[in-house]
């Protein structure tokens, strides 16, 4: 059986309000300390709705909704002092730069970039650092195989995963001898609800967990899309012995893509790290 090392991270996030640093990833666990709003924390690991972080040399867990959201610039853009085009520029943020979004004010996002706070026009931000028109999506929702081959999607491995958020379907492809993508599987899936949407863009598999959860639920066979977003199974009870929510084809997750357990396990067992993922 393959062994996978746990993902570590040198990334940082910022607290959006005063938040409890807890001993474990449950709201009933002990509070280690209260982290003030606007504090910088180091991210160690993440799993959907909780982040494991370090703050003032203390390691613990913070609920995801109290932390900033990571976005990327897809073009060189100005970090401005106020949410207006005529406001003074703070600095230039190069394309593909990571920023942490604190809030959204109209068409502007308040962000922190290199520990400097300011505003960026939201249109210039994306989940993956690519512009919204990176691919021709004409056939994405009607003929996925034509989409992946017409766009000549590249993957470092012999597989490719795509997820159609509109039709709530996940596709698994394998590169053929003619260098074209051949469809192996099409599976129904559940995606993020409107308040916690699934990220869009091109990503690359970065590790996996046999399971994760809290004191109220567990998911199995979790393959990381990016950060706290995974492909994983339907929901089980905290012990992992009984299914508590098997709904598919809906928009109700915290942002992860839920699959039937056997399908999540297939990805977990067969898809290599660095495999390309396209979600739209």
Q: Topology of this protein?
A:
Blueprint: E1 12-14, E2 19-22, E3 31-35, E4 40-47, E5 50-55, E6 58-63, E7 69-73, E8 77-80, E9 89-93, E10 98-105, E11 108-113, E12 116-121, E13 125-126, H1 144-150, E14 159-164, E15 169-175, E16 181-188, E17 191-192, E18 201-204, E19 208-213, E20 218-226, E21 229-233, E22 235-236, E23 243-245, E24 251-253, E25 257-259, H2 261-270, E26 276-279
Parallel strand pairs: 14-26, 17-24, 21-25
Antiparallel strand pairs: 1-4, 2-3, 4-5, 5-6, 7-10, 7-13, 8-9, 10-11, 11-12, 14-15, 15-16, 18-26, 19-20, 20-21, 22-23
CATH superfamily annotation of the largest domain: L,D-transpeptidase catalytic domain-like
Taking all residues together, what is the mean pLDDT? 94
CATH architecture of the largest domain: Beta Barrel
Count the E strands: 26
Instruction: Give the low-pLDDT segments.
Output: 1-9
Helix content: under 10%
Radius of gyration based on Cα positions: 19 Å
* Cross-sheet strand order for the largest sheet: 12-11-10-7-13
Number of helices: 2
Q: From N to C, what is the helix and strand string?
A: EEEEEEEEEEEEEHEEEEEEEEEEEEHE
Oligomeric organization of the protein chains: single chain
Please state the structural category: mainly beta
Largest sheet: 5 strands, antiparallel
Any idea how many domains? 3
Distance from N terminus to C terminus (CA atoms, Å) equals 32 Å
Q: Briefly, what CATH class of the largest domain?
A: Mainly Beta
What is the global morphology? globular
Strand content bin: over 45%
From the 3D structure, determine the CATH topology of the largest domain. Answer: L,D-transpeptidase catalytic domain-like
